[in-house]
Amino acid sequence: MNTFRQLAPIAAAVAAASSLAITEAQAKGTAEHVVMVVFDGMRPDYIRPQYCPNLYSLATNGVFFRRHHPAFVSTTIVNGTALATGTHPGRSGIIANSDYRQELNFLSPVASEVLDTIRRGDLLTGGKYVSVDTVAEIIQDAGHHTYIAGTKSVTLLHDRGVRKTDTEAHKNSVTLGRGLSMPRAAGDTLKKANDDKGFPDSFATPNVGSDNWTTRALVKGLWKKGVPKYSVLWLSDPDLTQHAKGVGSKEALEAIATSDRHLGDLLKELDERKLREKTDIFVVSDHGFTNIDREADIVAALKNAKLNASTRNDNPEKGDVLVVNLAGSALIYVVDRDEAVVRKTADVLQQCDFTGTIFSRIPIEGTFPMELVRYNGAGKGSPDFVVSMRWSDNANEAGIPGLLVSNGGGRPGGTHGSLSRYDMNNTLVASGPDLKRGVVSDVPSGNIDLAPTVLEVLGIAIPQHVDGRVLREAFVQGDHKPVVKEQRHEARRRIGFLEWSQYLKTTEVDGALYFDEGNGAVTFP
């Protein structure tokens, strides 16, 4: 299959279907409030009563989405933006946790979610660092204030606070990320809600103190004056602990239990305010998780092939190769787009035992086009390659399935970011007056669907730019029957006496595109 040649008509068809899906008449839900709770890095196979009774109760009494997907790459910042905008990275402009943007730092990658990067990005783009409006911004424009609270800085991308004086809705909205509040004056209220203690920025495993502080800041601080139309609570665990200790470890299970207690605190507050029956609750994770099998050094592999590769451009010249390691994936940039070097880089990657799936900016045999995973491969600052690392279904010593070759971290830790089926299957549970009860949904869904679904519930028009769909199959009202299309993409190449092959499985539902898994191998045919 020549995926590059076939991509244009497929993309056009998907876009057309998506446009039809989001222009359907808005059907306002009965809920007066929507709350999104993020268990960062939560695998759905750990939703069990002995680990997280509150989440398990919501899942069994509400809707559990068995086939839920993150956006790719399956990392926090990409999916924090996907949850906020309903779009894939190529449309939102946030393509990775760390990204190389010459206009922000010519020498090295920048962290995509830190305030300095956000402020510089908005300054250079006229407020379009995130290229499209977020749910919080749209709700505020409709006249309602929002509260966004996170232990991690990713929540700053949901509402960057550049319009806090425009209207009452804007002025009354608060964004909290890693203890930093916008507007700054809101910080006093959040501190008082935590016994006059500041945010404990020294993270632990499990990260009890910081997540507890953020939870109290929302439910005992911001909610003190009332619960708004839309709230977000982003917890750092079990992600933070799983990175250090691995999926299924004693510490990771404790981290799940801790996040579940924070969920319980939030539910208790809604009960005490007699708002539980008026609130739709979505508990989601940004991505799944895979344990690390071993570590690989992409830079060393490229250097062995006589390429001038590094993780920093100290004195860049044409043909230098910059590698941005993202643990389960990597972005690779070739200075001045030197095509000979680009093609040689592909040759090397296709012969390495750590490479999973390769997406290329230009057509190269044995790769997929970046547009297939909704990256804008033609963009001025786009990478030349997006690489997912290799994974397997093998289990670790504790019997936990899913092992990944990582370009950062090692055993006994875990990571994510790849097209591993364990990274690409994450958690979504929905409960509330607009949601069915006791339903396990096998209709594929994705993080890109949360934004349009929230707007639909609140009766606010869904913008045309969203890539996701409304999860109507989960609504009490109506009996929507989604159209599901599955596809397997393959690419091969002979390199001397070796053969490289890779695949990508995708699912399309009502015009929304999800990525199930992808991997590759080099063999002796």
Q: What is the compact description of this entry?
A:
It is built from 14 helices and 26 strands.
Tell me what the structure shows.
It contains 14 helices and 26 strands. With 525 residues, the chain is α/β, with parallel strands linked by helices. The chain has a domain at 29-288 and 414-474: Alkaline Phosphatase, subunit A (3-Layer(aba) Sandwich), CATH 3.40.720.10. It has a 9-stranded mixed β-sheet, with helices on both faces. Strands 12-13-14-17-15-16 form a 6-stranded mixed β-sheet. The protein has a 4-stranded mixed β-sheet with strand order 18-19-11-20. The longest helix has 23 residues, at 250-272. It is globular, with a radius of gyration of 22 Å.
Task: Describe the protein's topology.
Elements: H1 3-22, E1 33-39, H2 53-61, E2 63-65, E3 68-69, H3 76-85, H4 89-92, E4 98-99, E5 110-111, H5 115-125, H6 135-141, E6 146-150, H7 168-171, E7 174-177, E8 180-182, H8 187-192, H9 208-221, E9 230-235, H10 239-245, H11 250-272, E10 279-284, E11 290-295, H12 298-304, E12 309-310, E13 321-325, E14 329-334, H13 339-349, E15 355-360, E16 368-369, E17 385-389, E18 391-395, E19 401-406, E20 414-415, E21 428-431, E22 439-441, E23 445-446, H14 450-458, E24 484-495, E25 498-509, E26 512-523
Parallel strand pairs: 1-9, 1-10, 2-22, 3-23, 6-7, 6-9, 11-19, 12-13, 15-16
Antiparallel strand pairs: 2-21, 4-5, 7-8, 10-21, 11-20, 13-14, 14-17, 15-17, 18-19, 24-25, 25-26
Helix pairs in contact: 9-11, 10-11
